[in-house]
Structures are given as C-alpha cells and as structure tokens.
Amino acid sequence: MTSRLTPENTPSIAAAAAAVEADGRRRIEAAADLAALREVERTVVGKRSELARLHTRLARLAPEERRDAGAVIHDARTRLQEQLGRRAAALDAEERARRVAEERLDLTEISTHAWLPRRGHLHLVTQTREELEDTFVAMGFAVAEGPEAETDWYNFQALNMPPAHPARGMWDTLYLRLGEPGQVLLRTHTSPVQVRLMESREPPIYAVMPGRCYRRDTPDARHTPVFHQIEGLVVDRGITFGDLAGTIEAFTGAYFGAGIHSRLRPSYFPFTEPSAEFEVTCPICAGEGCRTCSGSGWIELGGCGMVDPNVFEAVGVDAEVYSGFAFGFGIDRLAQVRAGLSDMRVLLDNDVRFLTQF
Ligand code: DAH
C-alpha cells in the first residue's frame, strides 16, 4: 500500500509530537508541588492530552507510516513519563525536607530548668488575705482565728440571734450535728470569732479575724458556698461611731491607696446597733462609674456597726464600761473586684492557667 500524502503524515506528526513534548517538559518543570504535578500529568499524558489526540490521528495513516509515527509518539510519552517520575521524586523530597525542618525536634537541646520542680505560689485569695492582715497589723490590730465548725451558740445565739430569730434566714448553712444543745454547723461568717475573743480576754481588744466561711448558697458569678471573710473588732473605753468611720476610712486609704475613700450607709445586723454597710470608691474606675460598680462609682464591701449591748451581755463584757465596733467583709469578693474577675467561681476551679496569672 502506498502512503497517502496528507498533512497528517509522519513528519508532521513527529513535529507536532516534538512541540507537545517540549510544552509538556516546561509544564512538568514548572509544577510547584505534588498536587500541581498531578494536574500537569493529566494534561500532558492523560486521556484528553495533546499526545492522546495525536495518537488518534495514527488511524488515518498508512501502516508503515503508522508504525513510525506511533513510535515517535510512544517515545515522546515515555520521556515525558520519565520526566514526570523524576519531578515527582524531586518534589516529594523537597516536601519531606520542608516538613522535617518544620517539625524538627532538637533532642540534644539541654534545658536548664525543665527538670526542676515548678515553683508554685500562694492562691490569689491567700495573697489578698495576707495583704489585708498586713494592713491591719500596721494599723495596730492583732490577728486571731477561730474554728470553721461552730456551735449554734457562737454563730447565732451569742450574736443576738436566738433560735427562730428571722435574721437567721440571711445565713442558712450546712449542719454537722442537729439537736439542742450543741448544734454544730459550718460557720456562716467570721463573727463568732468576736464572741470567742471577748469570752477569752479582757478589753481592750483590737483584732482582725480572717477565715473560711460556708453558706447554703447556689454558686453563681458572685457567690460560692465556700468563701472567706475578715472580721474586725475593737472593744475599749469610750469607743464611738466616729472611731468606726475613721478606722474604715484609714483602712481604705492604706489598703487601696490614695484617692479611694469610704462611706457608710444605714443597714441592719442583729449583732450591731446602729449598723451600717460600708462602701469604697470603685477601685476599677476610681469612682468614675463602670460595669463593676454598676455605674455608681462605689463598691459595697461589707457590714459594720457598734457592738450591740446584748452581745456584750452574752460574753460578760460590761456595756456600762466598754463600747466597741465591729466590721466584716468578704475576701474573695475583694479579690474578685481587684483582679477584675467577672465570675468568682474561677477562684475554686484550680485551673493553673488562671492561677499562675497572680
Ligand atoms: N457577719 C456579717 C455577714 O456575714 C458581716 C458583718 C456585719 C460583720 C456587721 C460585722 C458587723 O462584724 O459588725 O454578713
């Protein structure tokens, strides 16, 4: 059979194959990563590639031409495939090298501190308690403590709250042993330590009493069933409400610093008469008004008042000779305000990521 001279004979197929191969080589070299190379492979040697299209033209050639042209296409495909393989190997090696560099662990590195035990520090609440103690000690107060499991007498009765007194409703708690006499409960405030102090020593008394307290409260952003208070008690001759207000103001300036003041507002506690709530200039906004103080510029810190004569009577202090004042406030609440914590419960979570910030 003689060959037909068509534009699609061997020489033109060879030229086309050379052009397709050259184009394919450029594209293979240009592939930046393995994913791009797979795409290039599809367009260079795939079913719909230029090479595949050239191959379909073979059918129209005479047999001997077809063999030569077929060989030309085959060789071009083989070389392209070899080049694809080399490029894939090179890209693979590059990617591996990059990942090894990125994920490199230097096992020879010597850390000078990792093997030392991590040094802890005091909890924020403990730090706050110690700062408060220091402030009061500098003002001439002694520090006293009392038990967390108290009797009904110390937590309520001696504080002018006989059984069934309605004010007991402000201090619901957990009872350890029920039944008169000697009902034992977890103390709801540090005020029973006042009673213990007055029972055990003669005035003058100038003391603060920090410690843990308990209440039957549902935990929320501002309450936890376990918390801390610090109580203050002064009993001496001639103590007046002016001494109370002056002491609160002196403490406020000493603890919070210049520009933070205190004010008293009338209130009620069974163990003091008259009673007041004391507030301090919001330490977050310095009295400007912010979210923490609900825009008022003041933060309520605790309660205070002149020791009720009934309390003096319960502990055997002569109210004709002595007078006194007392105050009490929450240490956790204070820590919450000063550290700007929106939720008080973080103080009990024991999450080191939180704790190590203080
Ligand atoms: N015990 C009170 C409470 O837990 C706080 C308090 C108020 C203590 C007035 C006092 C005081 O000593 O005089 O809410």
Oligomer: single chain
List ligands, each type once: 3,4-dihydroxyphenylalanine
Average the pLDDT over all residues and give the rounded result: 91
CATH architecture of the largest domain: 2-Layer Sandwich
**Largest sheet entry:** 7 strands, mixed
Count of DSSP E strands?
Answer: 10
Number of helices: 12
Low-confidence stretches: 1-5
Q: State the fourth-level CATH superfamily of the largest domain.
A: Bira Bifunctional Protein, Domain 2
Report the helical percentage: 40-55%
Strand content: 15-25%
Whole-angstrom Rg:
43 Å
Structural class: alpha+beta
Strand order of the largest sheet: 1-5-6-10-9-8-7
CATH topology annotation of the largest domain: BirA Bifunctional Protein, domain 2
First and last CA, distance? 97 Å
Number of discrete domains? 2
Task: Give a short overview.
This protein has 358 residues and is an alpha+beta fold. It has helices at 10-30, 34-45, 50-57, 63-102, 124-138, 152-155, 191-200, 241-256, 309-315, 331-339, 346-349, 352-355; strands at 142-143, 149-151, 175-177, 184-186, 205-214, 226-236, 262-269, 272-281, 298-307, 323-330. The protein has two domains: 7-103; 124-355, Bira Bifunctional Protein, Domain 2 (BirA Bifunctional Protein, domain 2).
